[in-house]
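tool_call: predict_structure(chain=1)
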Amino acid sequence: MPRKRPGRVRTKHTNRRAPLLLSTMAPEDFNVRPGETKSIACPDCRTWRRIMGDTVLKIREHCISDKVAEGEKHTLCPGTDQVVVIDIDVQRWQARQNRLLRDAMPQENRRAAQQFYKPIPAPAAPVSRINAEVTLETARQSYLAHRKGCTLCVKGQHCTDGGLLARRYVLALHQEPACREARDEQERQERRTARKLTAPAVRRAQWTKHGGEEVETANNRCAERIAGSLSEFRGPQVPQDPQNPEKHDQRQAELGKQYAARKASAA
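tool_result:
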């Protein structure tokens, strides 16, 4: 690859004008980025030209017409060999230019200063390894769907995933009675809870239907104590002796004979 020779000033002459200060020009009319070729828009012909030199910077020699190769007269631009002075803060100017370029760029072409790479999503877990609620129907459907698309699960043989799905289906079959009983118990509990919530309303409706002065009078009536009762919280005294002692003894004797005959037959 050929080495690019840096531009150099071939003459010490200038155009005898006052030095051109970059602070007096528009920021977009020159380029003094570090590491890039310095260039400027000539104030006279408004064409971009290189800035030559190391210590003394001058605009490169150029002509007014850009059609010299077509036979037109070669006329030097008055801005040739114009001395240029960099009297600005290059870093601040570069930051401002970068911001202007970023703002002028279309939104779809903008890129963040720091790239954030979206991680590749992990592959989905197979159906046999998904920890979800297993019911008899879901286990059966998963097993049948696997058998339909798997070429290894034939003639009673299973692959690794097919074996897991088959064992899950058999386990769901064994657990189905207990699960059905649990569901029935939960439904009964919900019905009992619903009845408890509606019981006050039912009692209010019954009181409205059968209530009135008669119920209030019966509720507030004070009944007299029954004769023979020890207190108002107990009933009358219960007799402990039989009414007919002879019949009682005769009945007891008959029961004793029956028990003895039953015991003898059992022996």
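agent: Residues 160-210 form the longest helix (51 residues). Proceeding to next step.
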